[in-house]
Amino acid sequence: MKRKLDENNEPVLAETPSTGETAGAATTFRDLGLEDPRLLQAVASQGFEKPTLVQSKAIPLVLDGHDVLAKAKTGSGKTAAYVLPLLQAILRRKKTSSESYIAALIVVPTRELADQVAKSIDSFSAFAAKEIQTVKLSDKVSDAVQKALLSNTPDIVVATPSRAWKCIESGALSVEKLTHLVLDEADLLLQYGYNEDLQSITGSIPKNIQTTLMSATLTTEVDTLKGTFCRSPTVLDLEEPDAEGEGVRQFVVKCAEDEKFLLTYVCFKMGLIKGKSIIFVSDVDRSYRLKLFLDQFGIRSTILNAELPLNSRLHTIEEFNRNVYDIIIASDENEAIGDEDSLEATTVQDGAGEEKCDSKKAKGKNTDEVPPKKKRKSSRRDKEYGAARGIDFSEVACVINFDLPTSSKSYTHRVGRTARAGRSGLALSFVIPKEKFRKHLPTSIATAENDEKVLDKIVKQQSKKGKEIKPYLFDMKQVEAFRYRMNDALRAVTKVAIREARTRELRQELLKSEKLKRHFEENPAELSHLVRHDGELRAARTQPHLRHVPDYLLPAEGRKGLTSQNVGFVPFRKPGDGKGKRGKSFKGRGKKFGGRKADPLKSFKGRPKGK
Question: Region Disordered: which residues (predicted)?
């Protein structure tokens, strides 16, 4: 079901449009009300032929000045749905007024998404670049630099809630004449802990501001933001049907904890999964363990986690989108939680590395029965990082939930990385049965204890959408032949190897920093000392033989005869060694000189005949 407006501009329920109605009456962006030829030219240069469902419904409403709350699936074009009318409003105002002020504030939950939105604005305003100025406040720069950027009075500011409020509070960001406010990925803003920042922003912006909320789901968090920022918004609950052959095919594999690594190795080495893939893991250590494991077999991959600097993360995404890497291993520390009623209080690691508990669910339970969980050591991780939502990973063919998320909501966000823009995709999830949990401690994680319960929630949620999650059947007899190679690789990926790999990667990223480059140019001795001190670190033991798959491991029905015979044990020496004529031993015959046995041939004294 989706909502539409009645004659009093009130949202009423209406039937979801059929496939034929998806395109709507507006078949071009000009039909939606976009009049500026520079924007239409930019849209054409981006290759957009027809507006998507969310664009055809949201753009006319935003152009008419309505507050809009739009819910649409990932990859449906929500960014263009609010950027295009925003740009037209600014360009239209500048035709009649020369006054310059910050007209729009776009708030996003993660710094990666802020960078992506800023690039999208630059693309759509490419033919009006002299008239549209955008500032992105996601980079870690000094307050003086931020103040200098904002002093030029840009038209649009893109920032996370914490960064936006910090600049508003300091007076660097003036919102007195703000006309547009956009909350992108609205359902994540409160889940990422931005409640106080958003409340502060609310009290500082004008009351009659036009607000646009974009989200992939409609949750209680979205309802809270709607009541805080909007005034009678038009709600668009859009569900765009998949065409035949499109959408995500979802599979699940129930396996032991160490078999996750085995099946992942087999899938990529044997070509069972083709195309670009995103592998989601639960934490940073897990991402390095899996990468080092795959490196043993010559399977190239790259890592994306909250520990890396922002520029490094953005570069990793660009390299993945440019097909430099086909596999990206993303840790999902800041995953969306809180919609699993039957589970116990769910924990998730925040940006400081500590585990927080959902107080609403824990309320009323006897805390004496549940031992307190140990807090992990804090680490400098970016709380404004998120890989499962918002980031535009291009042409992703497969999403692998190496570690199942802790909620069905997070699962939806993860699998939304594939099958975007009318393409098909594959989602493969590994689930640990209760009886196999903690059976292989080196590869075990605490969240796997509830895998089966979370899977039940995921199945129910997907069935409501008409989606089916099928079992992915491996022939474990054939896969078993690869187990000893998997064990060899896992033994090389120790805790020390993981720690050294993390240290090495951070050191490399720091050395790429422009500030450090200048410092080491002035102090070359410090650089040589750093390289000499850390040169012997190795991420994992190199095992070249694991990079190639021998023929005898490949399943081939016609070659059974070569391995069916029972040869048995073959000793290195024959049973008669040391006995008989040909097996005589010189044991005890050699003299000792200086504690060593003398060679009997060299010490042999020959006598001439007749003497």
Answer: 1-24, 348-384, 566-611
Burial 397-413 (b: 16+ CB within 10 A, else e): bbbbbbbbbbbbbbbbb
Please tell me the distance from the alpha carbon of residue 247 to that of residue 239, in angstroms, as a whole number: 13
Structural element, H or E, at residue 107: strand 104-107
Burial class (CB in 10 A: 0-12, 13-18, 19+), 225: buried
**Residue range 586-605, pLDDT digits in tens:** 444 444 444 555 555 555 55
Max Cα separation, the chain?
Answer: 136
pLDDT bucket at 306, cuts 50 / 70 / 90: confident
User: Average model confidence (pLDDT) for the chain?
Assistant: 77
| Across 218-237, average pLDDT | 85
Is the Cβ–Cβ distance between 435 and 452 less than 8 Å? no
Range(s) within the chain of domains with CATH label 3.40.50.300? 2-237, 247-339+379-493+540-547
Any idea which architecture 2-237 has in CATH?
3-Layer(aba) Sandwich (3.40)
- 247-339+379-493+540-547 falls under which CATH superfamily? P-loop containing nucleotide triphosphate hydrolases (3.40.50.300)
User: CA-CA distance, 71 to 63, in Å (whole number)?
Assistant: 18
- DSSP helix/strand/coil, 593: strand
In the chain, DSSP finds a helix count (H) and a strand count (E) of 21, 20
- Cβ neighbours around 315 below 10 Å, total: 15
* Residue 447 scores a pLDDT above 50: yes
Residue 602 DSSP class:
T
* Distance, C-alpha 8 to centroid of its chain: 43
Q: Output DSSP code: residue 420.
A: -
Do residues 393 and 328 touch, judged by C-beta distance below 8 A? yes
Q: Which of 399, 405, 411, 400 is nearest to 460 (CA)?
A: 411
Inter-CA distances, 294 with 289, 327, 484, 550, Å: 9, 10, 15, 17
- Tokens 């263009």 map to which residue? 80
How far CA 392 is from CA of 20, 79, 218, 248, in Å, comes to 27, 11, 21, 17
Residue 387's SS3 state is coil
Tallying the residues shown for the chain, one arrives at 611
Q: What is the pTM of this model?
A: 0.64
Rounded Cα distance between 411 and 427, Å, is 10
* Tens digit of each residue's pLDDT (9 = 90 or more) over 461-477: 999 888 899 998 888 88
Cα–Cα distance measured from residue 33 to residue 551, given in angstroms and rounded to the nearest whole number: 63
